[in-house]
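Sample entry (86 residues):
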Amino acid sequence: MLRITVSESKDAVTFILEGKLRLAWLSELRKAIESATESKRVILDLAALSFADSAGAHLLATLERNGVALRAPSALITALIAAAAV
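Predicted structure, serialized as tokens:
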């Protein structure tokens, strides 16, 4: 299961991801990010993300390449993102 909590400030929208990012939840995450105001910076807080399958890691790597800031990923999530980025 994945929980997405949105926190909005004057200049940024932070999405707090909790749980496991699997293929089944990617469309929900994409919808949430697309709903963010384009003029605001997008931040993904990954501190409570415990796992990402290959599709989830690939999406995170793609989002990071496209300017989304990834905050506080664990060592596991960092390694999964790095592996998906190659």
